């Protein structure tokens, strides 16, 4: 299996596992959107909490055609970048896109872009 397909499978498994940790309830629904072809993986919660609308992203990961994995948002306490690395995605292919470029420079084991 080539690198892109391997990375897609790892990302899909990780976001699915996280989605299973956040079950829907009577007030909100956990939604997992996976666009394998486009390389987009988004996990969020929608619903109502009283009179307040809930539209809350938990995870947003993109995989680019060059094989770089861009973590656009990690709203968990799971340190998704480390989970992805443990599962087989090379740290030098993981971009912590939710951090500014200056912050990313402080973590040289991960990709800048």
Short characterization:
By secondary structure, the chain is α+β, with helices and mostly antiparallel strands.
Outline the structure in words:
The protein is of the alpha+beta class and 113 residues long. It has helices spanning 3-21, 80-87, 101-104; strands at residues 28-35, 40-49, 52-63, 69-74, 94-95. Strands 1-2-3-4-5 form a five-stranded mixed sheet. A hairpin with a 4-residue loop joins β1 and β2 (40-49).
Key words describing this protein structure:
globular, 5 strands, alpha+beta, 113 residues, five-stranded mixed sheet
Number of strands: 5
Give the termini distance in whole angstroms.
Answer: 24 Å
Q: Give the helix level as a range of percent.
A: 25-40%
Question: Radius of gyration over alpha carbons?
Answer: 15 Å
- In round numbers, the mean pLDDT is 95
How many helices? The count is 3
Beta-strand residue fraction: 25-35%
Instruction: Flag low-confidence runs.
Output: none
H-E order? HEEEEHEH
Topology:
Layout: H1 3-21, E1 28-35, E2 40-49, E3 52-63, E4 69-74, H2 80-87, E5 94-95, H3 101-104
Parallel strand pairs: 4-5
Antiparallel strand pairs: 1-2, 2-3, 3-4
């Amino acid at each position: 299996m080539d690198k892109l397909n391997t990375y897609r499978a790892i990302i899909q498994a990780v976001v699915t596992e996280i989605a299973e940790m956040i079950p829907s309830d009577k007030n909100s629904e956990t939604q997992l959107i996976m666009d394998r072809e486009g390389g987009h993986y988004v996990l969020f919660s929608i619903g109502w909490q009283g009179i307040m609308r809930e539209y809350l992203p938990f995870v947003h990961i993109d995989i680019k055609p060059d094989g770089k994995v861009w973590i656009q948002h990690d709203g968990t306490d799971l340190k998704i970048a480390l989970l992805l690395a443990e599962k087989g995605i090379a740290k030098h292919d993981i971009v912590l896109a939710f951090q500014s470029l200056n912050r990313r420079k402080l973590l040289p084991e991960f990709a800048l872009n």
